[in-house]
Amino acid sequence: LREIRQSLKELDGGLKGELAISSEIEILQECFYLNIVPAGWTNRAYPSLHSLGLWFHDMLNRYR
């Protein structure tokens, strides 16, 4: 969860203009737009063929 939390904070800061948008954040943004799970997240959690929304919901249920 640490990786997900950190990347979401960076994305938020970039969108607010508080941080420069890095290539990693651009990739994250594109994954959100395409509704796919970012590779950096699946590398640290678990692989899945689900869409981003379903994967995130499942990941939260596993965490609980």
Give an overview of the whole structure.
With 64 residues, the protein is an all-alpha fold. It has one domain. It contains four helices and no strands. It has helices at 2-16, 23-34, 39-44, 52-63. Helix 1 packs across helix 2 (23-34). The longest helix is centred in the N-terminal third of the chain and has 15 residues, at 2-16. The protein is globular and about 35 Å long. The termini are close together. The mean pLDDT is 91.
Provide tags for this entry.
64 residues, mainly alpha, 70% helix
The proportion of residues forming helix, as a percent range, comes to over 70%
As for the number of domains, it is 1
The whole-number mean of residue pLDDT values reads 91
How would you characterize the largest beta sheet?
A: none
Pattern of helices and strands: HHHH
Topology of this structure?
Blueprint: H1 2-16, H2 23-34, H3 39-44, H4 52-63
Helix pairs in contact: 1-2
Quick description:
With 64 residues, the chain is mainly α. Helix content is 70%, strand content 0%. It has four helices and no strands.
